[in-house]
Amino acid sequence: MPTCRECNDDVDKLVSVKVAGKAQKVCADCADRLREAGEIAEASEGVIQGMMGYKGRR
């Protein structure tokens, strides 16, 4: 049985998710959590850049 690298549980199937530019194989539950965390980080970065008046590209 494969083991999730995030929660160390034995699962039936692993899902590949990109985190900070690197692919990780995690279970479906951890994949959802990591995606949500990434979306929140992007949104907060956009808000901070807007507050600071940043006009460049990322």
Structure characterization notes:
By secondary structure, the protein is an alpha+beta fold. It is built from one helix and two strands; from the N terminus they run E-E-H. It has one helix at 28-52; strands spanning 15-19, 22-26. Strands 1-2 form a two-stranded antiparallel ribbon. A hairpin with a 2-residue loop joins strand 1 (15-19) and strand 2. The protein is elongated and about 50 Å long.
List the topology elements.
Blueprint: E1 15-19, E2 22-26, H1 28-52
Antiparallel strand pairs: 1-2
Structure summary:
Helix content is 43%, strand content 17%. It contains one helix and two strands.
Distance between the termini: 40 Å
Q: Mean pLDDT, as a whole number?
A: 90
Radius of gyration: 15 Å
Figure out the total of helices.
1
Give the overall silhouette.
elongated
Order of strands side by side in the largest beta sheet? 1-2
Uncertain spans: none
**Number of beta strands:** 2
The secondary structure category is: alpha+beta
Biggest sheet layout: 2 strands, antiparallel
| Beta-strand residue percentage | 15-25%
Share of helical residues: 40-55%
Order of helices and strands: EEH
List keywords for this structure.
2 strands; two-stranded antiparallel sheet; alpha+beta; elongated; 58 residues; single chain
